[in-house]
Amino acid sequence: MNGIDAIIFDLGNVLLAFDESRAVERLAARTGKTRQQIEEYARGTPHVTELALGKVTKLRFFRTVAKDLAFDGTYQEFALLWSDIFTPIEPMIALAESLKNRLPRLLLSNTNAIHMDYVFEHYPFLQDFDAHVLSHEVGLLKPDPAIFQHALRTSGLAAARTVFLDDIAANAEAARHAGMQAIHYKSPDQARAELTKLGVSPI
Known about the structure:
The protein is α/β, with parallel strands linked by helices and about 200 residues long. Helix content is about 50%, strand content about 15%. It is elongated.
């Protein structure tokens, strides 16, 4: 396929849109805190990043946050209100599905174990991807070049023959520095056009 051996997709705002304000509103309603207090806590605490890097377990994260915010619900209640923030980007999902059995499809995401439990349950098509490079499992976050190198190494891919799509420009640029083809995702039509230019067609 014209020099492209695999496609690596970012998850958030490429395949699934997300709105963190929905979780903030639910947490505020359950704890009596204001939205601003919840947002300031999320920005100021190291726990969110530690969870994304796999440095704390799901339950330890829950217990710490529940204590800090005076959340009196169960882990299951917390996980749902914190994770029910995603909406499928249908044209991109259709694009990814059209490549199944034609090119290896990988998922590379800055995420966490709680969100991925929810995502895999509600969007099971993501489990069909050929590999998942998830920050909390590999202990690395984009745009660290090491996460791209890990994805290439563990999947046996050549950087120059791999395409990476991400909605954040810095992440796309980091992938280019790692030698990959990269698309700064802006819309499904733009992504399809860029992939077609790279010879991934018809899609």
